[in-house]
Amino acid sequence: MERRKFVIGMGALATGSAAAVGTGAFAAAGADRDVNVQVVGDSNAFLGLESTSAYAKEGENDELSLDFSDEFDSDVDASGLNPNADTRFDDIFKISNNGEDEVRIEFTEGDADDVKWAYSSDSISDEGGWAIDGEVNEDNPELDSGESIYIHALFEVEDNEGDLPENLFISADNV
C-alpha cells in the first residue's frame, strides 16, 4: 500500500512540475515570407464585375461604373428616368465568383429607397420577361466558385428627384 501511495505521489509531483514549468509552447515567432498580389480590372478579380449593358462600363482603373443618365459616351440617347414612373433595367451587369470559396452577395446603396436590385442566374434578355430569382438584399444570393448572376434594377420614382442611389457598394463574404 505504501508503494502505491509513493507512485501516485510521484505522478502528481511530475504533473504539477510540468504545469509549473510550462508546456514547451512558444509565445511569439516571426518569419519573413514572399507575397505575390496582383491588382486587375473588375471583370478579372476574385469578385468579377462585368458590364452586360450600355448602363455599365469599365472606366478608370478598369472599375465598373453604372450610369442611368447621359454621362456615358454610349449608344443611349436618353438622359434619365421618368418622374412618377417605374423604370426597369435588365441585365445591367454580371457578378461572378472567380474565387475558390462560396460567397454571399450584398448591396449597400446608402439611404436610397427608390431602387430594387434583382438578380437571376440567367440573362433576362435571353429568356424574355421578368424572370428574376429574387432581390439581392432580401435573399443575399450565394455563389459557388465559378457561378455568376445577372443584376437588374427597378427604379420607382415618385417625384422629380426620387430617393436614388449615388453609389453602390457590393460585398461578397465567405459562407
Key terms:
elongated, 175 residues, alpha+beta, three-stranded antiparallel sheet, 3 helices
Question: How would you describe the overall organization of this protein?
Answer:
- The chain has helices at 2-21, 124-127, 136-139; strands spanning 47-51, 56-58, 64-66, 85-97, 103-108, 115-120, 134-135, 142-143, 148-157, 169-174.
- The protein is of the alpha+beta class and 175 residues long.
- It has one domain.
- The strands form three sheets. Strands 1-4-9-6-7 form a five-stranded antiparallel β-sheet. A three-stranded antiparallel β-sheet has the order 8-5-10, with no helix packed on it.
- β2 (56-58) and β3 (64-66) form a beta hairpin.
- The longest helix is centred in the N-terminal third of the chain and has 20 residues, at 2-21.
- The radius of gyration is 28 Å and the shape is elongated.
- The termini are far apart.
List the helices and strands and how they pair.
Elements: H1 2-21, E1 47-51, E2 56-58, E3 64-66, E4 85-97, E5 103-108, E6 115-120, H2 124-127, E7 134-135, H3 136-139, E8 142-143, E9 148-157, E10 169-174
Antiparallel strand pairs: 1-4, 2-3, 4-9, 5-8, 5-10, 6-7, 6-9
TL;DR?
With 175 residues, the chain is α+β, with helices and mostly antiparallel strands. The chain has one domain. The protein has 3 helices and 10 strands, in the order H-E-E-E-E-E-E-H-E-H-E-E-E.
